[in-house]
Amino acid sequence: LDADGVPAADWLARIRAHFEDPDVLAVAGLGLYRTEDPRRRRAYNAFARAVWWLGVTGYTAFRMPWLPVNNCAFRRDAIAAKGAFRSVVCEDLDFAVRARGLPGVRYDPHLRVHLSDRRFRSRSFARQVAEWARADLRILLGRPLGTQGYGDPR
After folding, report:
1. What's the start-to-end Cα distance of the chain, in Å?
2. Interatomic CA distance for residues 32 and 85, integer angstroms
3. How many angstroms separate the CA atoms of 4 and 118, rounded?
């Protein structure tokens, strides 16, 4: 969870239910943004849902275990065996690329965390998405972007 993420009331119960199955190694949920402006909320959450479904598709088609770090749970040993999460921008994609083939990942769209829109407010939605896209491309090219200075006010 991010420090400013707010899990749904049933968040922990849903995670426990998934892990009753010993074959489940990780569970990933959907993070939705909260903001006062309904138009922005719709836009942010359309983006969040699209990214989430790309992650689900990546696992289904290529066995790349995309685990959004703002809303996932996992068995520590299984993730550590694949190199764990590194301190890079877009660490979830970085892990997915390195952990390809990890079995036992479940995606639960009802496992919800409500996220702050702070990054969109500090940079603008388009600039933040562009920064994430740049970081994703660097990961795919094998040159992840370090976190030094990431998130600093601009």
Report:
1. 24
2. 22
3. 9
How far apart are the C-alpha atoms of 140 and 151, rounded to whole Å? 21
The SS3 call for residue 29 is strand
Tracing tokens 């010993």 back to the chain, one arrives at 22
Tokens found for residue 115: 């996220």
Q: Model confidence at 151, in pLDDT bands (50, 70, 90)? A: low
* DSSP conformation class of 36: S
Average pLDDT over residues 115-143: 86
Any bridge partners for residue 33, and if so which? Answer: 115
SS3 25: coil
Closest by CA position to 18, among listed 56, 72, 93: 72
Is the whole-model pTM more than 0.85?
A: yes
3-state secondary structure of 70: coil
Cβ atoms within 10 Å of 139's Cβ, excluding its own = 22
Average pLDDT over residues 27-52: 93
Residue with tokens 């639960």: 108
